[in-house]
Each structure stands twice: as structure tokens, then as C-alpha cells.
Amino acid sequence: MDLSMKESFLDRWGTYFPDAALPLAFFYSDTPCGELCGRRSTRYRCLIADVQAARKGKTVCLDEDGIACSGGKRYLGFSQTLRPHFEEFLSSGIPGELEGERYKKSPDIVAQLMQSQPPFTAPAKYAVFKRWDILEQGDNPLIVIFFATPDILAGLFTLANFDETDPYGVITPMGSGCSSIVYRPYRELLSDHPRAVLGMFDVSARPYIPHDELSFAVPWPKFLSMFENMEESFLITHSWEKIRHRIASTSRDVPG
Q1: Phi, psi angle pair for 189, to nearest 5°
Q2: Do strands 126-131 and 60-62 pair parallel, antiparallel, or not at all (unpaired)?
Q3: Is-contact 182 142, C-beta < 8 A?
Q4: Alpha-carbon distance 111 to 101, whole Å?
Q5: Helices marked H in 115-210 — which ranges?
Q6: Using an 8 Å Cβ cutoff, are 200 and 221 in contact?
Q7: How far apart are CA 256 and CA 249, in angstroms?
Q8: Nearest 5 degrees, angle CA 53-CA 183-CA 20?
Q9: Is 40 exposed, middle or buried (0-12, 13-18, 19+ CB in 10 A)?
Q10: Helix (H) or strand (E) holding 216
């Protein structure tokens, strides 16, 4: 991690998005770190609940045994399998045996959807979520994750599209909360033209974040271009100045 770049982003973020919550960096590591490292899951817990601790400044470092949700394990690359009867679980369920979440109309639709979501293998033992301001020299972010309200999202969305001829510099694929902040942007890293991912529409994950926030996850190469463009983009205009003042007036604490 280039610490001078880290500090430059902090300065620009504070200028153009005053008092807005800092983003998280996500990366993999073979070295354990952080307050939550080594924790073993004893009961179900949504990964998004753990991520909120990172927003408060704790380094969240999880291995396979530290993730309680089977979806979290898969979408962070620690498992290549799905839970039994996943197609029924995500759709109509099994009468008398399994309650379905009804996010898809039928098991067949789920099965076809999953064909477009091949698993991957995590490149290291630990998945790390770390707030931007506490990043260190040895950290190597792969994805930068923002949790943001509509005004902030409008700025991030427009900045992500600033140097694009394609109108789809940001994508919104359906999926779990953890897939929208890790799996999908990680897949974008493998692309010749990585895009940002707007997410956290997962009804099951939404109770763990404020009601008026979504996620905006950016693959590292895309984030670098956004950072480099900040000071020549719309962010320096009077149009953004109106939004900037509104962001400053509605700042709040990170959720517990």
C-alpha cells in the first residue's frame, strides 16, 4: 500500500465528501491480524454483521472457520459447494421440511442463475476487511467498499463513469450482500475492464446496515482511476458544491 496515496485519498474524500464514512479495503492474507482473527463461529451470523465492526475501526480477519454462513464461505472463496437444497431454499422451499426465502420464483431459475456464478478459491488463508485510515504499508487492497447514502452514491456512481464511453461502468447484479461486496467485484478484477458494483439489496442482509444505505464496491484498478480523476471531475463544480454541503449537514455515526 502506497501510504502517500492513502493520505491523498483521505484529503480528497474529506474535501468532496465531508464527514462521510470512510470506505473499507478488502484483501486476502496468509498472516493473521485484527481483533476478530481466530474467532470460530458457533452459530449462524451474517457476514455483513461482522463487516460493520470494520467500519468502526476494527480489523476483521476471517478464515473459513470464522464465517458462519455457507454463502459467506462460498462468496469469499473458502468453499466451492452450496448448502443442500439451495435451489429450494432460495425459492419456494420444501413443504414441511424447508422454508424458502422466495427470492426466485422456482428452483429451476435458481439453478440456471448459479451457472453464471462459478465458485473461486481464496488466494490466501484469511479474508481481511480494514477501514481505509488504518491501512498499513504491507496491505494490498483488492476491493474498496463504500457504504453510502443516495447523495454519496450519486457522487461515486458519476465518478466511476467519468472516463467511460460505456454507460455501464457500474453494474447491479442480483446476489447476496457478501457477493455484492466481494464475489462480484473480485470477478471484475479478472476482467480487462473492471466495473464497480452497486449492491446490498439482499433482503436478508439489510437488517445489518442502516435503512438508507447501499454498498458500492470498487475493484482496485477502477478505484485508482476514480481517485486520479477526482480533482478534474464534476466534484470541483458548483453543482457538486450543493450536494457537498448537504452531505456535511447529514453526517452521522457508523452503526453499531
Answers
A1: -60, -30
A2: antiparallel
A3: no
A4: 15
A5: 150-160, 177-178, 184-189
A6: no
A7: 21
A8: 40
A9: exposed
A10: strand 214-219
Q: Which residue has the cell 428452483?
A: 107
Cα-Cα-Cα-Cα torsion 152, 156, 159, 165, nearest 10 degrees, comes to -130
Q: Is 105 helix (H, G, I), strand (E, B) or coil?
A: coil
Burial-class residue 62 by CB neighbours within 10 Å (0-12, 13-18, 19+).
buried
The CB-side HSE value for 246 (13 A sphere, CA atoms) comes to 12
Tens-level pLDDT at each residue, the chain (256 residues): 899 999 999 999 999 999 999 999 999 999 888 766 766 766 678 899 999 999 999 999 999 988 988 889 999 999 988 888 888 988 989 999 888 889 999 999 999 998 888 999 999 999 999 999 999 999 999 999 999 999 999 999 999 999 999 999 999 999 999 999 999 999 999 999 999 999 999 999 999 999 999 999 999 999 999 999 999 999 999 999 999 999 998 765 555 5
Separation between Cα atoms, residue 80 and residue 232, nearest integer Å = 43
Per-domain boundaries in the chain:
3-81+119-249, 82-118
DSSP helix/strand/coil, 215:
strand
The grid coordinates listed for 228 are 486520479
For the four alpha carbons of 40, 43, 46 and 49, in that order, the dihedral sign comes to negative
Sheet holding 126-131, edge to edge: 60-62, 126-131, 24-29, 143-148, 214-219, 196-199, 170-171
Burial of 193: CB neighbours in 10 Å, binned 0-12, 13-18, 19+:
exposed
Pairing of strands 196-199, 214-219: antiparallel
| pTM as predicted | 0.93
